# Entry
Amino acid sequence: MKLLVDTNVLIDIRKSKGDKEAQERYAKILYAHDIYVPGVVEAELLHGAVSEKNQRELHKSLDAFAGANLGDSDWKTLGDQLYKYRVNGLTLPLADAIIASTGMKYDYTIWTEDGHFGLMQNVFPQLKVVRTEELLK
# Structure
């Protein structure tokens, strides 16, 4: 499966460094799937760096993943999707909308623990979303 990883998953992976069992669970997923990280997730993760050393470590970690991003012609599509979310009563972070749009563009499954994506599926049923526990089954 081609997984587009949300920021919260990458943060959870980094936080689990001292937990051997959690690291094994994440490794099982990472090695079993094609993993992609959108640019907006890279930016969010780097924004949260706590030091220059941490920032360098994050850059190195992110370099291990393939990227997936929207192109110039995709921004109008994203705007149309944002409109559709709004008229359906959904207000959500722009980063989440970008991730969802990228996932739909490439037909990737979004790996997240964020509840916004489930709500977004109500508007765009073709949006594929999976949680960590589902990937471990």
